[in-house]
Amino acid sequence: MPFEEAVVAHPFDPGYVTEPFLTLCAEYPEADVYPASQFRTEWGPIFHRGRLDGSARVLVIGQDPAQHETVVRRILVGEAGRRVQGLLAKLGITRNYVFVNAYLYSVYGSVRAKTRRNLALVAYRNRWFDALLVGTQVEAVLALGTAADEAWHMWTATPNGQATRLAYAAVTHPTQPESSSQNNKTKLAAATTKLLRNWNAALQTLAPAIAHPDQPTAFVPYGETWGEGERPPIPAFDYPAGLPAWMHEQDGWARRSGSDVLAKRRNLTVTVPKGIVS
Amino acid sequence: MPFEEAVVAHPFDPGYVTEPFLTLCAEYPEADVYPASQFRTEWGPIFHRGRLDGSARVLVIGQDPAQHETVVRRILVGEAGRRVQGLLAKLGITRNYVFVNAYLYSVYGSVRAKTRRNLALVAYRNRWFDALLVGTQVEAVLALGTAADEAWHMWTATPNGQATRLAYAAVTHPTQPESSSQNNKTKLAAATTKLLRNWNAALQTLAPAIAHPDQPTAFVPYGETWGEGERPPIPAFDYPAGLPAWMHEQDGWARRSGSDVLAKRRNLTVTVPKGIVS
Predict the structure, then answer these.
(1) Integer Cα distance of A196 and B78 in angstroms
(2) What are the pLDDT digits (tens) for B120-144?
(3) What 3-state DSSP class applies to A150?
(4) Nearest chain A residue (CA) to B236
């Protein structure tokens, strides 16, 4: 790695610079595989976040990119990403991780079973898993939500997947408490507690497999709700060059804007957070 | 080059992958050098467009990035960029070019003389010129507008600049006709004709220096107004991975939005062009 956070003012992720990633990012499934009625293909595919240079020790499988990801062109950079960042930190993994999603494009509405099983969709995703898992130093895999879990099992059914043995845990999706509780605070608190218990169980599965943590860490389980430091910012070194600090230090700066469904699909507004511009 | 447009579905620019560009993009001047009262530093620096692998034959110096550039994170990707793309094509240069700006950030209002001459601002920009021009195969330099021309002369006054001899032309900025004519069609037509004459003169200066065009081209001067094919789209291979095609095929999809000056400074809205989403 040419960059170390301590010595570089603005570390960044150089992105897709070697094979097979150069080819994977130049030849990707489009609307014939990801129907525009089920995915926001109009914003282009968003591929990954984290290390592609072979240094990753943990692979995280997410679901699909949302509005912040569309701007940053890296996945899991919003609130869900922060929560996972905190989970990885509990495993001592603060840099050597890599994230890919089950889907290249943001889900619009819901995904049909036929689409989920589309051979071209699955085959392309499996090429990423092959690239990240076959003969690499990844020690554990974490799936966020059911689409990610399904993606993992589709890969483990392939010859490459069958030949690979890795610690694995599937957890509740990091923002499931919000999406399931519909602004009801009592429900949200209960769903959060349930999620954190689920995550504690996953940590116990994965921790023994992490033989090479970035920062050896005494295991501290989650409590009943999110604790201090358990939703850390996304590191600058995961972002493309030149993006402003507020894009990784803060959340909530991108929204789909407009007065009707079509406008909201076509518009994305980025707002510099308060206090940056006077 | 690993990518050729003919064989790759979605060629892209891998960006900042070797020195000195890795360091230049990690350590750049910020608001202490570019005052926030004169520049939109809140959106982060935007560095370049084009070839950084030594294959560039022409260096284009622009002025500053605007809203489309802020989204794409490459410079001169809007209307000004298309016009220059057309000028380069008349020189037979369709791929082996590189663009940098006089300023890393979008100008807000106007730039004070003291800022323009700030030693840190000039020194950083000169490091880019050194990287792109000292011992490289660049054959000609084109400056767009007065800030770019001044930037060039500040570099040619340095020891590295003094030791380098390159064909050079400074031209009227590509969108000067619009900015000078304030929606008056007669004035716009006259200013466009004047600009194109100015550009024809520059082509005559630069053409003899282009010993290695990408596509040898019979010289066709501009007419009285923009002709067919003289504002071509920006090539996909200049954009980061995964950006949708409409971002390089079209213009006018990004705007500063909001009802007052501060809101317009803080908000950027991207709108998928009509016809992409039904």
Answers:
(1) 47
(2) 999 999 999 999 999 999 999 999 9
(3) helix
(4) A26
**CB–CB contact A266 B262 (8 Å):** no
> How far is B76 from chain A, CA to nearest CA, in Å?
16
Residue closest to A145 by CA, chosen among A187, A202, A77, A189:
A202
Nearest to A29 by CA among B242, B239, B4: B242
For residue A41, what is the nearest residue in chain B, using CA coordinates? B244
Return the pLDDT at A278: 78
Going by C-alpha positions, the residue among B48, B54, B55 that lies closest to residue B28 is: B48
B277 to chain A, minimum CA–CA distance in Å? 7
Contact by Cβ (8 Å): B152, B125:
no
Longest dimension (CA), chain A: 57
In the prediction, which pLDDT does B251 show? 87
* Per-residue model confidence as pLDDT tens digits over B153-180: 999 999 999 999 999 999 999 999 999 9
pLDDT tens readout for residues B28-76: 999 999 999 999 999 999 999 999 999 999 999 999 999 999 999 999 9
Give CA–CA dist A191/A145, Å, rounded.
14
Cis? peptide before B177, omega within 30° of 0: no
ipTM for the predicted complex comes to: 0.94
User: HSE-up of A23 (CA within 13 Å, CB side)?
Assistant: 7
Contact of A76 with A148, CB cutoff 8 Å = no
Low-confidence ranges of chain A (pLDDT < 50): 1-6
What is residue A3's predicted lDDT score, i.e. its pLDDT? 43
Instruction: Compute the distance between CA of residue A277 and CA of residue B267 in angstroms, rounded to an integer.
Output: 11
CB contacts of B39 in chain A (<8 Å) are none
For residue A122, CA distances in Å to A40, A173, B157, B239 come to 18, 21, 58, 27
Q: Which two tokens stand for residue B75?
A: 């410079």
Q: Which of B163, B160, B145, B152 is nearest to B84 (CA)?
A: B145
Q: Which residues are bridge partners to B121 per DSSP? A: none
- Which residues of B fall within a CB distance of 8 Å from A10? 25-28
Q: How large is the angle between the packed helices B79-90 and B185-206, nearest 10 degrees?
A: 40
Among B105, B261, B268, most A C-beta atoms within 10 A, so best to mutate, is: B268
